[in-house]
Amino acid sequence: MKTVHDPKRFGRVAVLMGGNSSEREVSLDSGRNVLAALQAQGVEAFAVDGIPALVEAIRAGGVDRVFNILHGGDGENGVLQGLLQAMDVPYTGPGVLGSALTLDKIRTKQVWIAAGLPTARFVRIPPGGDLAAAVRELGLPVFVKPSTEGSSVGVFRIAEESDLAPAVAFAADYAGELLAEQMLTGGEFTVGVLGDTALPSVRIVPAGDWYDYHAKYVADDTQYICPGLDGEDEDAIRALALAGFRAAGCDGWGRVDIMRHGDGRLMLMEVNTAPGMTSHSLVPKAAAQIGIDFPTVCWRVLESSLEGARR
């Protein structure tokens, strides 16, 4: 499974984690797991908390490549990627275009629509826009979510008019764009991507009404069914994930979230370019189904940084 066998080939690897986004704690958890896995395989890896500390380490000559596990914010919006390319430091994950695009759910969906790929219907809500009007235009039930946040931060499930008030209050204080998105009821899935391989799909079945922050990172009663589909349906969801990943300008590794409509149609939802690597995370769960253990996943992701010239 590995194409590189000597850990010295990677040099000094900065595992970038933490930072100051709303996903800081999840990133620290992911980073600790990745760091331990790489060190156990002989990689000269060390932790770096946030981009300013990384810049200092690079300027000091102590970094040969970066394993980016900085969730959200500048870790996934193209800022880090552009910085590292300017400093000629290889890194894991998609490049500037894929990272910048996919952190923005609205623009990603616009690209998918232009490419003829299926995605759930949505209405853009600009800063200061009328959230209630957007929800009514789309029709209940819907989700309302920030366009550039992750880990279900700021997501509201609106099944009836009485659910609107908390979302309206959030929108009043939120400086960014929001979107109201059609709620699909045929099942929630995610597909990890490693290079040119789509991993087995994972069907997510939360104990509650939906897959919120608690279900993702805290609860132990969320069910993860892998593979999530069978036969031709499983082939179709993996093919759609790869098509959506590539159409969004992504390479290296990532995760594509997909929902199924009540009539069975598959709909692309969003792309995560620095997926979680915690005990609850889905890329490791899917990889394990085809015999790739957690340390090997980390190794293979790091291998992709050796191909940085492709950008």
From TrEMBL:
It is found in: Cytoplasm. Signal peptide: none annotated. Mg(2+) 2 binds at E270, N272. Mg(2+) 1 binds at D257, E270. Cell wall formation. Its main location: cytoplasm. The active site is at E23, S151, S281. InterPro entries: ATP-grasp, ATP_grasp_subdomain_1, D-Ala_lig_Van_CS, D_ala_D_ala, Dala_Dala_lig_C, Dala_Dala_lig_N, PreATP-grasp_dom_sf. Keywords: ATP-binding, Cell shape, Cell wall biogenesis/degradation, Cytoplasm, Ligase, Magnesium, Manganese, Metal-binding, Nucleotide-binding, Peptidoglycan synthesis. PANTHER family: D-ALANINE--D-ALANINE LIGASE (PTHR23132), D-ALANINE--D-ALANINE LIGASE B (PTHR23132:SF23). Its cofactor is Mg(2+); Mn(2+). It comes from the Bacteria. This is D-alanine--D-alanine ligase. One of its GO terms (cellular component) is cytoplasm. GO terms for biological process: cell wall organization; peptidoglycan biosynthetic process; regulation of cell shape.
